[in-house]
Write a structure and sequence with these properties.
The chain has 294 residues and is of the alpha+beta class. 36% of the residues lie in helices and 26% in strands. The protein folds into two domains: 159 residues, Ribosomal Protein S5, domain 2; 124 residues, GHMP kinase, C-terminal domain (Alpha-Beta Plaits, 2-Layer Sandwich). The strands form two sheets. Strands 1, 2, 3, 4, 5, 6 and 11 form a seven-stranded mixed beta sheet that branches. Strand 8 and strand 9 form a beta hairpin. The chain starts with a strand and ends with a strand. The chain binds L-homoserine. The site of L-homoserine has 13 residues, from helix 5.
């Protein structure tokens, strides 16, 4: 069976480890039960082993439900989600593995269980929720239980991904953050995060500009992104409403309401952000889906 899973951007400014949005940018992975053995094909050799996240999520799900795993074939058919760029490539593999185990072995798992399983492997639900269900999601953890809800995004809003030519590991990007924050910064973020879903839903320009501000992670991470200042300048010149890190970076996400935004940014980026890929991102509303079986 073949599963298609979307890329996603976590955080969206102030919603650290909680907010996420899925994009129409996909990986497609085939899963097949074999009589025995393990085969992983179609990805770089460094991922063809037992640490492969799609396999880990697949095995985790079967183990949790006491299903004896036969042999498994995992074939990466399309891998359009850039790796280590803050676009949820790990979450996409995990969502695929959980969904495939459920479908291939007929477990009949509901959305809440799928989310918990994926969160157990990923550690936090912000990317796996949109990867599984699509749309813009806000998620929380109560102990080990993940809860998520979807919010609408105004159709006039435009999203552009500025994807740098360099990788940034989530571990490194998390390591530069402080262990504790001030009450002032906590209130700064919680008030903006609370109103961000409303701003995205209504496309309220002024509210959105303020609600994309963050003091919990971006101020510490910006030094890891060579080109951040140029990107901020471009975003302003192109008339975008705001710019934030996509997940832990290195990709930046521009949000605006001008229809030619992505083309404008792409044109400007040629000069001052050489090697960066600029592409429009359209929200995905379906999440992980089975697109074929054999
Ligand atoms: N919320 C996570 C972070 C996303 O910003 O570190 C990456 O997994």
């Amino acid at each position: 069976m073949k599963i298609r899973i979307p890329a996603s951007s976590a955080n969206l400014g102030p919603g650290f480890d909680s907010f996420g949005i899925a994009w129409q940018l996909y990986n497609e992975i085939e899963f097949e039960a074999l009589p025995q053995g393990l085969r992983i094909e179609g990805c770089e050799e460094r991922f063809q082993n037992e640490n492969n996240l799609a396999l880990r999520a697949f095995s985790h799900t079967l183990k949790k439900f006491g299903v004896k795993q036969k042999g498994t074939l995992i074939r990466f058919v399309n891998s359009d989600i850039p790796v280590s760029r803050g676009l949820g490539s790990s979450a996409a593999l995990i969502a695929a593995g959980v969904k495939a185990a459920d479908a291939l072995y007929g477990l009949g798992l509901g959305p809440g269980v799928l989310l918990n399983l994926a969160t157990e492997v990923e550690g936090h639900p912000d990317n796996v929720a949109p990867a599984l269900f699509g749309g813009m999601t806000v998620s929380l953890l109560e102990g080990k239980r993940a809860l998520t809800r979807r919010f609408n995004v105004h159709e006039k809003l435009r999203f552009t991904l500025l994807i740098p030519p360099f990788e940034l590991s989530t571990a490194l990007s998390r390591s530069v953050m402080p262990k504790e924050v001030s009450m002032h910064d906590a209130v700064f973020n919680l008030s903006r995060a609370a109103l961000l879903p409303h701003a995205l839903e209504t496309g309220d320009h002024e509210l959105l500009r303020v609600c994309l501000q963050d003091r919990l992670h971006q101020p510490y991470r910006r030094s890891l992104i060579d080109g951040m200042e140029q990107a901020e300048r471009l975003s302003e010149e192109a008339g975008c409403i705001g710019l934030c890190l996509s997940g832990a970076g290195s990709t930046l996400l521009c949000i605006g309401n001008v229809s030619e935004q992505s083309a404008l940014l792409a044109e400007k980026a040629k000069k001052c952000l050489p090697g960066w890929i600029v592409r429009e991102a359209v929200p995905d509303l379906t999440g992980a889906v089975i697109v074929g079986s054999f």
